[in-house]
């Protein structure tokens, strides 16, 4: 009565000898006596032999082998790991190659709230050109009377602001002094090619500690934080602390793929950076104009941004005598790329066009009737809202009021202390627009339109579409902890 148990213990061992395996196989295949039908050993042996046969067949293919009772898979000893994946061993060579291009920025500015004396602040940046152009955050140099930039080799230069833009938090500086022309400029990468899980390195001067290094990975892309209508942040778990602002975020090729710009103080290991491709589009504008001069295409987009799908934006209407009209763009065209860079949403189109300076000639790729074609468009300065009235008729929208709305998704609501899907977040307000004149502010949450409850941006637009043209709108907004009604004339 103990034989089956002993046999079971020996056969279950994965290291059973080939000779014993042959004997057991013969036993399993040998016809049993008449009384064997009542003996459970025969079926049991056959089941165990099937498991061992499967184990040997898997180990021979290199695709893995099953665990006990086929509940899981295991790779055989010596089998290769994941394809196209090489785990990093040391980041020291990368850091040595790029750290010379990371700079420490010190500013002196008047104290706020009317206090006497001057305030001294520090930040980070990186060398863009050997001749002395430096990129940093706008808030690092905002209001500064004096800016000093120190390189890792100890050289120090005074700097002036060439241009800056608060909506993207990007600033361009120019160094002055001798010994320019051979500065250690860094290479810029392609942030569109980043994937969640890619390794990244942040270098900066947190709390004034020169050239501190942290590493992590890309946690998410295209994060919208409610800062402005150009929100397009890279989220990373590489540590970013005060003083890191303006410093570079590197990929594993030593290329700058982002400008570190924000951190959620309540969280740990959650930092944000402006994608370097957005910075590339903005830099010519800042160098030529000193600020963001927004280009205008002249189209109305059939906005599908609230459906959560990535799709090429479709032209709903074209303004008469606009750059789009001159280029022959029509209603129904799908805009799939700007200057060779693919776009998959209304927001991407808005960013890529608005960041280009007026006078820039842009190359648009569009899809019309299933056929792809390219057109050249010379952008112009965005006209005032009253100048575009009557040029095109379309349903009222949040943009007619001068608003940019965002859904309060859990990712957006949580850092702001708001309840998800409790309304539509005001992400931007156009100056001198009806919303601006009515007192709507950045960060307000629209909860009702004409006393109808709304839970997202699509709900606001649906309520606006039902309203009568020219009639006033009554919005109920949440501002901080208070609720108030705001009337907007249109």
From TrEMBL:
- Keywords, ordered alphabetically: Hydrolase, Protease, Signal
What molecular function terms (GO) are annotated for this protein?
serine-type endopeptidase activity
Q: Which InterPro entries match?
A: PDZ, PDZ_sf, Peptidase_S1_PA, Peptidase_S1_PA_chymotrypsin, Peptidase_S1C
User: In this protein, which residues make up the domain named PDZ?
Assistant: 291-370, 391-481
Give the range the annotation lists for the signal sequence: 1-36
Q: Which domain of life is it from?
A: Bacteria
GO biological-process terms attached to the record: proteolysis
Q: Which family does it belong to?
A: Belongs to the peptidase S1C family.
Name by which UniProt lists this protein: Periplasmic serine protease
Which organism was this protein described from? Myxococcus stipitatus (strain DSM 14675 / JCM 12634 / Mx s8)
Query: Taxonomic lineage per UniProt?
Result: Bacteria, Pseudomonadati, Myxococcota, Myxococcia, Myxococcales
């Amino acid at each position: 009565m103990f034989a089956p148990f002993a046999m079971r213990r020996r056969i279950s061992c994965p290291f059973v000898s080939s000779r014993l395996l042959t004997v057991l196989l013969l036993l399993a295949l040998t016809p049993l006596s008449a009384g064997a039908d009542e003996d459970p050993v025969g079926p049991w042996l056959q089941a165990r032999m099937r498991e061992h046969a499967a184990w040997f067949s898997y180990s021979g293919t290199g695709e893995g082998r099953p665990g006990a009772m086929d509940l899981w898979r295991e790779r055989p000893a010596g089998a290769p790991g994941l394809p196209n994946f090489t785990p990093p061993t040391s980041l020291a060579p990368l850091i040595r190659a790029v750290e010379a291009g990371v700079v420490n920025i010190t500013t002196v500015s008047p104290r706020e709230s009317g206090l006497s004396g001057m305030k001294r602040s520090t930040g980070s940046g990186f060398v863009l050109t050997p001749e002395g152009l430096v990129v940093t955050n706008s808030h690092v140099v905002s209001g500064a009377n004096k800016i000093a930039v120190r390189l890792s080799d100890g050289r120090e230069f005074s700097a002036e602001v060439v241009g800056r833009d608060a909506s993207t938090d990007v600033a361009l500086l120019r160094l002055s002094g001798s010994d320019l022309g051979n500065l250690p400029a860094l290479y810029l990468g392609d942030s569109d090619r980043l994937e969640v899980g890619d390794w990244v390195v942040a270098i900066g001067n947190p709390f004034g500690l020169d050239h501190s290094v942290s590493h992590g990975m890309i946690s998410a892309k295209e994060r919208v934080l409610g800062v402005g209508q150009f929100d397009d942040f890279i989220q990373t778990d590489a540590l970013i602390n005060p003083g890191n602002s303006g410093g570079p975020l590197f990929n594993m090729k030593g290329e700058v793929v982002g400008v570190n710009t924000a951190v959620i103080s309540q969280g740990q290991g959650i930092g944000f950076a402006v994608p370097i491709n957005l910075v590339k589009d903005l830099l010519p504008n800042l160098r030529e104009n000193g600020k963001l001069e927004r280009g205008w295409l002249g189209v109305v987009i059939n906005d599908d941004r609230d459906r959560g799908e990535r799709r090429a934006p479709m032209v709903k209407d074209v303004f008469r005598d606009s750059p789009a009209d001159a280029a022959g763009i029509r209603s129904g065209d799908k805009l799939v790329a700007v200057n060779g860079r693919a776009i998959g949403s209304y927001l991407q189109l808005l960013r890529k066009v608005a960041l280009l300076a007026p006078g820039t000639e842009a190359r648009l790729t569009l899809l019309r009737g299933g056929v792809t074609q390219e057109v050249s468009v010379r952008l112009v300065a965005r006209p005032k809202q009253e100048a575009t009235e009557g040029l095109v008729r379309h349903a009222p929208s949040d943009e007619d009021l001068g608003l940019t709305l965002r859904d309060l998704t859990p990712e957006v609501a949580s850092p702001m202390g708001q309840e998800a899907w409790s309304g539509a977040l005001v992400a931007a307000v156009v100056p001198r627009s009806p919303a601006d004149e009515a007192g709507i502010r950045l960060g307000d949450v629209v909860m009702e339109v004409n006393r109808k409850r709304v839970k997202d941006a699509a709900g606001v637009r649906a309520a606006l579409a039902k309203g009568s043209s020219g009639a006033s709108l009554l919005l109920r907004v949440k501002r901080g902890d208070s609720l108030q009604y705001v009337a907007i004339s249109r």
